[in-house]
Specification:
It is built from 15 helices and two strands. By secondary structure, the chain is an all-alpha fold. The chain has a two-stranded antiparallel ribbon with strand order 1-2. The radius of gyration is 21 Å and the shape is globular. The two termini are about 25 Å apart.
């Protein structure tokens, strides 16, 4: 028993407890959204499998798991799967009795590959060799994912940009990049707009003027805002949300899961969940600041950036601060691939927290 407890010595209990709180919130949310139906039972199964994955990544030596040969081999295999999905015009890998979304695992591979590159770089700041290495490995993932799922492709690109900042991207590069993007958007705006798929253009139009499209493309945004506003201070109560029970709220299990939670638990409950995400990301960054081993530090930075962008994009879309995007909210949204990828990421962070005072 003492031997088993020693394996958890130094673990970040704050990260584990915050994750556990979000899992409970996610289970309650799915129980309400599906009224205890099959999706709720499936989500519990994914949580159970995810807990096993978390335990595995917590106890194993992350430096052995993240050997360059193993990670690069998995990266090549993932690229092949993504290419098959592009050819089939789908974002899902269909297996007997199981559907997997490889783009969720692409985030983990991008984080691991980027961490390995920064870990092995020489000198300080972002030199040309490091920039080229990060870009050459990131862009095949970004492009292949974006061809079937533009939202997830954008998520990968944001993680890539986050690593550039961590690597020491000069401020002048940031300014030049932002100005260049603005100029390109102005000059090629009509052409780029034509490249978007109809549903993608509909999202932008609905974001700019949801009331004008209240019965079709703006319906999702308006119903999400109604659900959030209906919650008031304390909420309508567990399984008492009208938007959810009467099926006014589309995608209530996935993209708009936070709207279900806000309607039933109110401003207080919504604030607790947002604070849980904030402190989870803060604790991961705190581990990154304390860890001695560079590989673990960069992994923590990558995981923190992944959670930050997922939360920001999902909740920002529901609150009409951003266009609604098909980016799941960690642990609250339904989805097996998302749960497994996020639990594996938390397991890596817990593993690093156990070894943060060691160079091995």
């Amino acid at each position: 028993m003492v031997f088993k407890l020693k394996k958890f010595g130094g673990i970040s209990w704050s990260v584990l407890l915050l994750t556990f709180f979000l899992l409970i919130a996610g289970a309650l949310n799915q129980a309400s959204a599906s009224m205890g139906g099959i999706l709720f039972k499936k989500q519990l199964l994914w949580f159970t499998l995810g807990a096993g994955l978390l335990l595995f990544f917590t106890l194993m030596d992350y430096q052995k798991i993240l050997s360059p040969k193993l990670i690069f081999g998995g990266y090549i295999l993932l690229l092949n799967f993504l290419l098959i999905l592009v050819i089939r015009h789908t974002r899902w890998l269909r297996l007997p009795g199981l559907s997997i979304q490889p783009s969720e695992f692409a985030k983990l591979f991008l984080i691991c590959l980027s961490a390995l590159i920064l870990y092995r770089r020489e000198g300080e700041g972002l030199d040309g060799k490091t920039f080229l290495g990060l870009s050459l490995l990131a862009f095949p993932l970004v492009v292949l994912v974006a061809l079937t799922d533009l939202d997830q492709g954008g998520m990968l690109f944001l993680i890539y940009l986050s690593f550039l900042v961590v690597a020491g991207l000069p401020r002048r590069w940031v300014v030049v990049t932002m100005v260049s993007i603005g100029v390109i958007a102005l000059l090629m705006g009509p052409y780029l707009w034509g490249l978007l798929k109809p549903y993608q253009r509909a999202r932008v139009e609905a974001f700019l003027n949801p009331e004008a499209f209240a019965l079709d493309r703006g319906y999702q945004i308006i119903q999400a805002l109604i659900a959030v506003g209906s919650g008031g201070l304390k909420g309508l109560g567990f399984k008492e949300g009208l938007s959810s029970r009467l099926n006014y709220l589309p995608e209530k299990h996935t993209d708009l899961a936070f709207a279900v939670w806000a309607e039933e638990w109110g401003f207080i409950g919504a604030s607790l969940v947002i604070l849980a995400y904030f402190f989870l990301i803060y604790q991961i960054l705190n581990i990154a600041a304390r860890v001695r081993e560079p590989l673990g530090r960069y992994l923590c930075y990558g995981v923190a950036s992944m959670f930050f962008w997922e939360v920001f994009i999902n909740i920002g879309g529901i609150l009409h601060l951003l266009p609604v995007a098909s980016v799941p909210l960690p642990f609250l949204s339904y989805g097996g691939s998302s749960v497994l990828a996020n639990m594996a990421a938390i397991g890596l962070v817990l593993n690093i927290s156990r070894r943060r005072y060691s160079f091995r």
